[in-house]
């Protein structure tokens, strides 16, 4: 062979060359993700001379995803934490931070109004007139300029003269359910966002948070490498996070699943290193996302990690208690009320149902009629189907876990002892914890498409010991011929993971769509105005963010892990048996000759 080719092959395959190439690929992908999030997702590329162009050039900070989080932090730093869920105060805070002078001069729909419409709750119908009239009277200036400057509708002098102490009292203490609402985040979110909300510059905070999200992905990749004890390179783990479903959406919208993934990975790292209390403290910080904290409690509970579980609960509870001297108990009660309103809205709102990835939203996609008014959409059939699917997964998880647990204790379950602390019998890496991780993700109560990133944690628990679980299976049909071909079956884990990455990186952009109509279930529906129409259950299938393909992928992985637990079989075991069968058949043919 040519010596130059040998040298070139040695150079390309050298560990240092591969490591440098991997990091260069990470930098390239991260740069592409950041450029798309910063300059393409919400950037206004129109000419500066165009009257429809935004003055500030980018409106990413005005979305409910980032704007809602930032509003929580700004309510804290502006001294309004005790009125965190008062929509009147939120209006005023946002009016100062998002002035109309930064919008397009020809804008009809304004940032503050759109953001507040996306928040939970409704305003007091008398609120605009009372607020505008009060400010006009106190300012001693013409009414119209004051009201327009604050984004409030103009009022007449007659209205301002009719202001009484009762009106002012109604402004300070609006009747419920009016005026209670806002972003659907617990008070802890205000403290988390406070460093980015020290001033009225939400756009700067939005750009800064995007850099933080990239940093969270990098640190989470380091955690995956440490969890696998070096079997997965830091660069490869980071690249996996960058291209996995949910990361791009979180980076564009300024959402926090990258931080949640970081906590999940590093908490489990400490657990596998024999430091369950530290790991539990890390997981306890998930209290800023209560639905995920409650859902993932199932893992340490079923794996009998009592110290980890106790540390997690104590940390989460302590974080809540530490906020009480600042917020008071009333703010937390208001948050529960806002959450109740959001839960009802979540079940019938088109965007929330179709952008969600939880089990509750899947049946509602084709069981609800989206053409009728929102308050009339919910049906008992949709409720039974949604909760029935959730209970099915929960019940199956418990039933499958229990015999799998007994099989592991009897010594029939393959596991790498390096990844389990010697004081525990249940494995911390492999199909059992991955099965529970996928179940926790599926059982979470209401979450959106960018939270698909957290399902990567289940893949990580399998990939951390990939040499045992991700080997291909070699099969060979019995044949009288000596040259019968071998069939290589690749790992199911790699296949599903690859399809999910393909979905994120390619298929979402195609936006292909098909419609399935079930005419067997046609029925005549009476509308509120007395008219009737024909209603047909309709199922839309496509490659867009409106379709829960990530949930289907996680369900397939959950089922694969369930089969491994029920059979007590591993990919490595199946490969060894297959190789032995092939070797035995070859020996028998040789002896026959």
Provide structural commentary:
- The chain has 593 residues and is mostly helical.
- It has 2 domains: 61-201, no CATH class; 203-578, no CATH class.
- Helices cover 60% and strands 4% of the residues.
- It is built from 28 helices and 6 strands.
- The strands form 3 sheets. Strands 1-2 form a two-stranded antiparallel sheet. A two-stranded antiparallel sheet has the order 3-6. A two-stranded antiparallel sheet has the order 4-5.
- The protein is globular.
- The two termini are 37 Å apart.
- Mean pLDDT is 81; it is low at 138-163, 407-424 and 570-588.
**What spatial form do the alpha-carbon principal axes imply?**
globular
Helix content: 55-70%
Strands ordered across the widest β-sheet: 1-2
Radius of gyration (Å): 28 Å
Largest sheet: 2 strands, antiparallel
Proportion of beta-strand residues: under 5%
How many helices in DSSP terms? Answer: 28
Derived from helix and strand composition plus strand pairing, the structural class reads: mainly alpha
Distance between the termini: 37 Å
User: Which parts are unreliable, with pLDDT below 50 for 5 consecutive residues or more?
Assistant: 138-163, 407-424, 570-588
Number of domains as seen in the coordinates: 2
Mean pLDDT value: 81
- In total, the number of strands is 6
